[in-house]
Amino acid sequence: MQTDELSMESTLVAELRAAVTGVVLVPGDAAYDAARTVYFTAADFRPDVIVRAADAEDVARVVTLAREAGAGLSVRNGGHSLAAHGVRDGGIVLDVRGLSSIAIDAAGRRARAGAGLTAGEYTAAVGAHGLATGFGDAPSVGIGGITLAGGVGFLHRRHGMTIDQLIGAEVVTADGTIVRADAASHPDLFWAIRGGGGNFGVVTQLEFALQPVERVLGGMMILPATPERLVELLEQAYAAPDDLSLIVAVMPAPPMPFIPADAHGTMIMMIHLVHADIAAGERFVAQLRALATPLLDAVRPMRYPEIYHSEGDPPHPAAVALHTRFIDSLDVDAAATLFDRLRTGTAPMRVAQFRPLGGALARVSSDATAFAHRNRHFIANVGAMYQQPEQRAEHALWAAAAAAELEQSVPGAYVGFLDGSGASRIREAYPDATWDRLVRIKQQYDPTNLFDGNHNIAPDA
């Protein structure tokens, strides 16, 4: 590194320390390595400086200094990005996890929450009032990141996606201005952040509608899998009333203690579900039990926040190569070919995950938000979970080839599950009209592409 580069970095760090009330970390600081570690721990990036913002004003100061210095900037929330967008080599990481306040208006059914809260923290806080906003299936995901992607989880068929519950947001734009984005103020920005990712600013606070969700039927069930059972389950789930949302993962059974030893290595369906009508849910679960004798049956009536603490979660991988796409159907032949791919992959864990859509999600106009795939039936993900970073190329090729078995005539991808495998995949996340509008809004709010640490929509695209 040249002397003038060292001087510039030292000056920037000094300016950051003088400007913010939060914590500034550089290589060599005791907390630096922990602060640069994200959910998929194989991501080994070393930023020049990490700023743990204390408030929106800190965020604005960091954004301004990064722009003036021409420094690369990444925003870290829960750190679940499959592409590890919450960290980078060199530049600045702006960590917003300290923005964790929440104000709940139970009577008005609204909550204002700092973008640094996790889905589990938010759900527990509002759940104490018998209320909920739907996020994803992981309690440790940051609410800022999942909201910017769209938000598909356990309530999307009953109450819509996370973005469908978003009333407004506080956003720091590329010029360092703190704005309120909602239907009346900066409406284009409000439209763009609902599915357009972190391309348009740093979200510091979110205001959500709250829905009455007290007790549900929920939890995990594991069944022996066959192609026929998978197809039948997906057809039943998509045709079910809106009260049901579920996720089904198909995989060779890992050697986990909650799975009987004689089933290890056999094909299983790991079903994670929420049914808002307990009596109707019991009838649906009875249909599942009729498909095959469960290897694990942890479905029970529960308070909704308990869904984030259910039995039967698979092990946490250091890295995952994942290929995501939308599909509208699955036939037995395609499922059988997919099963063969899952059996013969070389990664320690191979999984195909299906998320039935429809319901309230599909009743929102496709042009109402930057997430535009409202009419698709399923999100299908094929992933290889592994430990050694040098194995990525091999497993990424496998995941893409296995997902190709599901390919249908209409392309599409959910931006929240993209893994950084290329610009063409980002383009698949947005239909033409949506993409063109996003580019125009990017040109307005971030003309120099300061916010490029994401699935990037460049202003000159």
- Describe the global form: globular
Secondary-structure-based class equals alpha+beta
Ranges with pLDDT <50 over ≥5 residues? 1-8
Beta-strand residue fraction: 15-25%
End-to-end Cα distance, whole Å, is 32 Å
Structural summary, described in words:
The protein contains 13 helices and 19 strands. It has helices spanning 3-19, 32-35, 56-69, 119-127, 143-149, 156-159, 187-193, 227-239, 278-291, 332-344, 392-404, 423-428, 432-445; strands at 23-25, 49-52, 73-76, 92-95, 102-105, 110-114, 131-132, 166-172, 178-182, 202-209, 211-212, 215-224, 244-252, 267-275, 296-297, 300-303, 319-327, 349-356, 378-386. Strands 12, 13, 14, 15, 16, 17, 18 and 19 form an 8-stranded antiparallel beta sheet that branches. A hairpin with a 5-residue loop joins strand 8 and strand 9 (178-182). The longest helix has 17 residues, at 3-19.
